[in-house]
Prior knowledge:
Layout: H1 24-38, H2 44-67, H3 70-75, H4 80-100, H5 111-120, H6 128-136, H7 141-167, H8 176-206, H9 208-233, H10 241-268, H11 273-283, H12 288-299, H13 303-329
Helix pairs in contact: 1-9, 2-8, 2-9, 2-12, 4-7, 4-10, 4-11, 5-13, 6-7, 6-11, 6-13, 7-11, 9-12, 9-13, 10-11, 10-13, 12-13
Amino acid sequence: MTPRTPGRTARRPLRLPSWLPVDGYVLALLGTVALAALLPASGTAARVTEGASTGAVGLLFFLYGARLSTREALDGLRHWRLHLTVLGATFLLFPLLGLAARGLVPGVLTPQLYSGLLFLCLVPSTIQSSIAFTSIARGNVPAAICAGSFSSLAGIVLTPLLAALLLGHDAGGLSADALLKIVLQLLVPFLAGQFLRRWVGAFLVRHKKVLGHVDRGSILLVVYTAFSQGMVAGIWHLVTPARLGALLAVEAVLLAVMLTLTWYGARRMGFDWADRIAIQFAGSKKSLAAGLPMASVLFGPQASLAVLPLMLFHQMQLMVCAVLAKRRSRDPEAAGTSGTVPAPVPAGREVPSAGT
């Protein structure tokens, strides 16, 4: 036993409870929002940050395309019913619930916050967190990988189109200029990444950690630019504490409804336990990493209020799903899952950041 140094007491590292997985990257995002509130970019600085943000969005979608293995996604087509179920939850059920929430305007939500809530409902699902929580709950991890990949691929096209159709003027409408902007800033870099994947894929794998910082730094730049524009335009007086509390309550109901529909709906459709786990976690989530840059392209100066609901929902889904996944792993039915399913990892240790 190592002797204790006289006059010193052993200190245990400060850790958050495993049931309260506050995402450190969300804290960084909140710090970026605070910086934009105190020191917003204006004048020449605003033009520089806007140009850098545009470049960052292109880089993000290039990296998304270069990392996403379409071959692995296509290999999972044999489980097409599961993938269609997740896509239906992501791009049909979520938008329908978002449209139903229009009745909360203006009594509960402001029109600007409602636009952000509806945009949240149009964003694709996550990959990393869907896999992590499915693994914790002893679900069908390969299906979660494929479902998340399909959702990301579909979201490159469906999210901008649905936003233009359902949000109208708030998201730039369906004008030729808006579509050209989407194609140039989102689709072209993504397709370039897919095309160059065979040559740059190994490099991305070797430098995964460094490029992860590039991803997150780029998203922080996008957030700073969007919230700076909002501060300069003076739109933040629309978000009172009461409105913010109402938004959190609405998002809590939205998440609860989607978790319930994906779980019991999958059971009614005849899916087994492991598949229901994958459907619930892949079908109830929204990708912060994909949504933030998309919002900056679609909403322009109004992006700050558009991304606020997504940022709040992201942290909420991590906290709720971490608790839910841990409970699912202890369910008696989990003992009957296939041996190919990985063993669960401790909740709170594998909760992913905002990367995907």
